Amino acid sequence: MSTASVVAPASPVKTPTAKAPDPTVTDPALVKRAVKAAALGNAMEWFDFGVYSYLAVTLGKVFFPSGNPTAQLLSTFGAFAAAFLVRPLGGMVFGPLGDRVGRQKVLALTMIMMAAGTFAIGLIPSYATIGVGAPILLLVARLVQGFSTGGEYAGASTFIAEYAPDKRRGFLGSWLEFGTLAGYIAGAGLVTIMTALLSADDLTSWGWRIPFLIAGPMGIIGLYLRLRLEETPAFAAEAEKAENNRPKTPLREMVAGQWRALLLCVGLVLVFNVTDYMLLSYMPSYLTGQLHYDETHGLLVVLGVMAVMMIAQPFAGALTDRVGRRPVIATGCAGFLLLSVPALLLIREGSLLAVALGMGALGLLLVCFTAAMPSALPALFPTKVRYGSLSIGFNVSVSLFGGTTPLVVTALIGATGNMMMPAYYMMAAAVIGGFAVWRMTESAGRPLPGSAPSVAGRHAE
Questions:
Q1: Measured between alpha carbons, how far is 149 from 85 in angstroms, rounded to an integer?
Q2: Spatial contact of 384 and 99, defined as CB atoms under 8 Å apart
Q3: How confident is the model at residue 321 (pLDDT cuts 50, 70, 90)?
Q4: What are the residues facing 25 on neighbouring strands?
Q5: How far is 455 from 457, CA to CA, in rounded Å?
Q6: Higher model confidence: residue 321 or residue 186?
Q7: Percent of the chain scored above 70 by pLDDT?
Q8: C-alpha radius of gyration, the chain, whole number
Q9: How far, in Å, CA of 150 to CA of 57, rounded?
Q10: Which of 14, 107, 312, 419 is 20 to 30 A away from residue 291, measured at CA?
């Protein structure tokens, strides 16, 4: 009888598991410096865009002389919109460059170009002096601004998002749009003071130049702050993985490889920018040009609305860290869908109280976007392509829908005679934005795609 051999059971094979990346511990002082430098650039950009919008009637007289005020306004907003047509080109240049050589270097370059383009507008002779050359030079300066802006917002929001701790990204990102509102308030405040102190002739002959010439020293200060910044930890880590510290990603990977995120980005940016430009850029001209509201009082109302938005901005940003980006953005979309018509009816009623209530309601709804988007949009894309893909998606949407808002709505009112067109336009944007929110993934409190977790260092506020 043979004895059976006993075979010991095989030990389970241990498969190696990928080690979770060590968290990045942020330096509170560095984070604050990054937020300030990014917000200042945004403030300068929107100081210019705000001033251009608030002086639209005056600029129409200076550069587009015509017996028809509506034609002047359309020509001025046409030059305004032209800058947005080249923004995607700027995004396709500066975005991939930011993913290759670093966020900080590209943000310094966009600051130089922005300041130069704005400063140049203040030096352009009037149509009465050099004829058709004046609007041509204005258009060239606007194109320089638009090209540089193509890399500004995506770079600034990426910069803050990659520096911020995961649990505070909404709060810190909200300061980027705080800078936007500060720029608008500075522009509106300056125009209001000038309108009150200068005669119409003085404002048309030389006063309008002052706000644009201020961009020179502002640009120097912003450039100094940005040159003192270090590269973001997320980009530095990505650069270490690539040869020669130069990550190279084909443009098609930024588009075809991210098509779903790009579509979501376009939808979110559409509702964000249509409502933003409607309220902050178009409404001052709507109050004066369409409703014949007193120009100074109209600007003061907008100034007050922006001040309220600034106060609410950081609190709303912190709220997105607690409840998530999606609920806050969805609230804004629902609000614009339901309240755009009532708010515009209040504005059209004409009394100061009614206009303030209508504008205030739209402003608080807009905060849902301004507080959440700077942290929500960068989280749509992985680190390797974040700057490039976000630049492309953001600027395509802004160019097609946001920056053209004043021009399109003015034309729609002229074609139909329907003064409620601004409300209907915002409602349509809210529907598209609501669909994008429904399809997006919540990012609050989570690491950015392709990046290690980020936690706050000691003594962070």
A1: 11
A2: yes
A3: very high
A4: 455
A5: 6
A6: 321
A7: 86
A8: 24
A9: 26
A10: 312
Q: How many CA atoms lie within 13 A of 34 on its CB side?
A: 26
3-class DSSP string for the chain: CCCCCCCCCCCCCCCCCCCCCCCEEECHHHHHHHHHHHHHHHHHHHHHHHHHHHCHHHHHHHHCCCCCHHHHHHHHHHHHHHHHHCHHHHHHHHHHHHHHHCHHHHHHHHHHHHHHHHHHHCCCCCHHHHCCHHHHHHHHHHHHHHHHHCCHHHHHHHHHHHHCCHHHHHHHHHHHHHHHHHHHHHHHHHHHHHHHHCCHHHHHHHHCHHHHHCHHHHHHHHHHHHHCCCCCHHHHHHHHHCHHHCCCCCHHHHHHHHHHHHHHHHHHHHHHHHHHHHHHHHHHHHHHHHCCCCHHHHHHHHHHHHHHHHHHHHHHHHHHHHHCHHHHHHHHHHHHHHHHHHHHHHHHHCCHHHHHHHHHHHHHHHHHHHHHHHHHCHHHCCHHHHHHHHHHHHHHHHHHHHCCHHHHHHHHHHHHCCCCHHHHHHHHHHHHHHHHHHHCCCCCCCCCCCCCCEEECCCCC
Which residues, including other chains, have CB under 8 Å from residue 434's CB and lie 6 or more apart?
Answer: 271, 330, 333, 334, 337
Report residue 38 as tokens.
């990014």
Two tokens, residue 397: 């949407």
Q: Which residue has the tokens 């320089």?
A: 144
Please give the structure tokens belonging to residue 66.
Answer: 């015509």
Scan for tokens 């021009």, then name that residue: 407
- Residue (of 82, 400, 80) closest to 269 by Cα position: 400
Cβ atoms of residues 87 and 400 within 8 Å: no
Q: Please name every residue paired with 134 in a beta bridge, in sequence order, or none if there are none.
A: none
- Cα–Cα distance for residue pair 162/15, rounded to 1 Å: 33
Q: What is the pTM of this model?
A: 0.84
pLDDT at position 79: 72
**Rounded to an integer, what is the distance from CA 381 to the centroid of its chain?**
17
Average pLDDT of span 322-335: 97
Handedness of CA 424, 429, 433, 436 (dihedral sign): positive
End-to-end CA distance of the chain: 81
The residue length of the chain stands at: 461
